[in-house]
Amino acid sequence: MKTNMNLRSAREFRAKGLLEAARFVLENLLNQSDRKWECKEGVIYNELGLLNYYMGNYRQAADCFASAVEHATTRDSWVLYNVNLAIAYRHLSEYDTCYRILNRLKQECTDEVRSITKGLLFANLSTIQGLNGFYADAITSILESFRLFGESGVHGNDVGLHNNLGIAYLELGQYGKAELHLKKSLELSGRKDLPVLSDIGRLYLMMGKITESIEYTKRALDLVWSSIINYEKEEIARLCHLLANITIRCGEVELAVRLNEKAQVMFGQLGMWRQWQDIEAEMNLWHENPPSWSDSSGLNGISLQEVHRFLLCLDALHSQELIHKKFARLLDLRAHYVRLMANELELSDRERNDLVLASRFADYGLTALETEVVMEPGRSEQAFEKYKLHPTLSVQMSQTLGLSDDVIRVIEDHHERFDGSGYPHRKVAYDIHHLARILAVVDAYCTGIILEDKRHDIVWNEIIHESGKRFDPRVVETFIRMHDIS
Question: Can you provide one Gene Ontology molecular function annotated for this UniProt record (predicted)?
Fold first, then answer.
């Protein structure tokens, strides 16, 4: 009974996006000495795998899913856990392992396996087939996935399936079918999906319809800030590549090369080496035979300044990730939790985006400091004095990114303390920007979890203890309320 209650709590935390609280519950469950949870071991490990997957910890996710497979109690759960394991391997760029698992499952599915589980299997098989260049096979798998999800009355995957189908037809040169499915995907997504807009832009570019390509690329650029907030590397890499192909046709050779190099960096980080090699071959071709611009309207509404700003922001994000191997994870978790707090506080869209942007760039100034100072600011008084400079440095360095005045103020104030003992200006209480007071709580929580390797409950209690001193009591109350699943 207690095991089921804990599992339910963990799932409720995960559903609310409270990933660290969910992980704490599950790990506590596994550490119980009475081992009453053994009959649910596969379910627990699968839940832990999902949490690690959502956190971007793909190696840990793979280990958890492998344990779930070992403890599966039904054929359906065994297939589901194996599909999840294959997905984790795909994100680890172990494409051959992923393909072998999914291809084996396709042969071993029986009537005991639910249609929805089979649909998930074929959807993910199509993705790895596409990544390996087997586009005809990918189309067959996508159509089978549509059929199986349809049997289950499930349509939540239709946007992705139509998009993948469009990409497969695009790669096969069947542009009419590609356009049909990409437009359908865009319609189902509410017409605000960056990957779909980018893929339609690429489709029209390959069809020689430059004006239409620019139109959809402009719409994709309008969503750039939300993309940087969520920071899906593959989506951004594909947009960089599309922009490179448009700007080269406008005679902006240096800018096009920079965009393609940025795309290569991100594809390389993701282990997507075929895409990396395709861009390398493309740039060699440009060197030998530069594309000619076929439309006198130039970029037709796309601002070169906006493209340059986009690149500067990517440079800033990447430079922070290089501070330490844990830093990319810190930035992602911090952006995730400030979004949750913004929703809990019912902030406006503008305030939410300002808060998330500030969380992404608040530590830009740390890139100007030594790694030892960043990771251990308390090692000496001199080190801490250097560390205290980083909000001011972040403000100065972020001025070039074109961020709003409010975002800059949040960055400047995010280490001020409610009792006036913070830095750099020792502001007190409500003199501190209201979004900075939210970021302060989230930053303390995420730093404790990621950089200091503390458990959720330890950091939670530290935040409560500092309410009214380091933190705004009302923000702490919101943080507590957000975790209430009673």
Answer: hydrolase activity
